[in-house]
Predict the structure.
Amino acid sequence: MKNEQNVEQTQQDMNELIKVRFDKLDAIRAQGREPFGKRFDFTHHTAEIIRDFKEDEEKEVRIAGRLMAVRGHGKASFGHVMDAEGKIQVYFRQDVLGEEMYEHFRMLDIGDIIGITGIVFRTHRGEISVKVTAFELLSKSLRPLPEKWHGLKDVDTRYRQRYVDLIVNPDVQKTFRLRSQILHTMRSLLDDRGFLEVETPMMHSIPGGAAARPFITHHNALNIDLYMRIAPELYLKRLIVGGFEKIYELAKVFRNEGIDIRHNPEFTLMELYQAYGNYETVMELTEYLVAGIAERVLGTTKITYEGTEIELKAPWKRISMNDAVKEATGIDFLAFETVEQAREAAKSIHVEFQPGDGIGGILNRAFEEKVEETLIQPTFITGHPVEISPLAKRSPENPMITERFEAFVYGRELANGFSELNDPVDQKGRFLDQVKQREAGDDEAHLMDSDYVTALEYGLPPTGGLGIGIDRLVMFLTDSSSIRDVLFFPQMKPKE
């Protein structure tokens, strides 16, 4: 009951504060002034003013930003204005502005967006500031900013109202600026290696390229169902068939699955393909990209994530899935001749499996249960079973496994790649196996894609393919514990 009373009182207080601001809005308009102003041509950002300050130079500047603090002292007041690059102290004096303009200044609230003309100086306390000679109200803020936003326990509100989070929490802006730098650097590194950025459709007639549930929509004019892409893979490989040799896409992908600290139904994936390469080609490329991005953006390949030091510099550890499971459990799943033997072994180590799982599927479940979370330092897991890799080329040494890898950091998958299956007969057979799995109840199994098989029949050169989860990479490089911390607007259930 007490908590409910506190919430009700807080809401009443908020309503009163908002009413005061609306009253000021009316008063400003009654004075013939516009509370939502016009274009303002600023000359400097705050960080530039502070960086280039010279004691013996009287420089006039025009700045624009949000008023974040005000400290009044009768006929003179200090405040802080924040723009896209930082904040700076501003000094309002009645004898400089005149009585009328100074009264207008008193109508300002924290959160208002203003344009200022003034002279740069250093205060007696040593703070570089701007003495205001004129100002304009550019946008009246009708809702008060939270005073201690960063300390709020209700992180749900931070994600729902990201625009407020960005205003009052500079660290959040820093994260998203780093995200932009990471994407820019990834493009630059790929460009340096001769890759071409391309775009492929986001709506597919057949969902493919990953084991995931798609979102379904309907196209009225064609009267057909379409699927939001779960991966750009099959369209990108069609481009390799068409003659491109090195391509990549920074793709928004959509998967109709659960939401947690690692998953959002809409996320960003970098996927690339290199003709005449294989899975080893793109393993090296993974090391090059991840370490190169860290070096350029952070200045080091050694990061700290959730208190754990991680070295991203090549070479990364490499171990097969079967060997990793064998090290952890003592069981060699690929030595079994029957599924029943694999099932009994799984039961002995308390690993659950599905009725349709073969030896390869059970091996994968044992890996996920017993090994995955132990892979803290960057590690390539190779030798994935054919059963769970419908688009990867078989290993010439062992037809039960593929030339595939997954890269893990801090127990989480960061990248996935393989030598692309370019045998159309084998690919058609794999699709048919996936169809059977789907009919048996696996709604994440791949559908038959006859057009893709047709493309392979024209000839896909030996190709290495790679996918890197951008959001997870940003999480690691910004030490963010949740994917919601690196997405401007994560998916949230609407408030009732």
In short: The chain has 15 helices and 18 strands. The first helix runs from residue 2 to 30. Residues 2-139 form a domain with the OB fold (Dihydrolipoamide Acetyltransferase, E2P) fold (CATH 2.40.50.140).
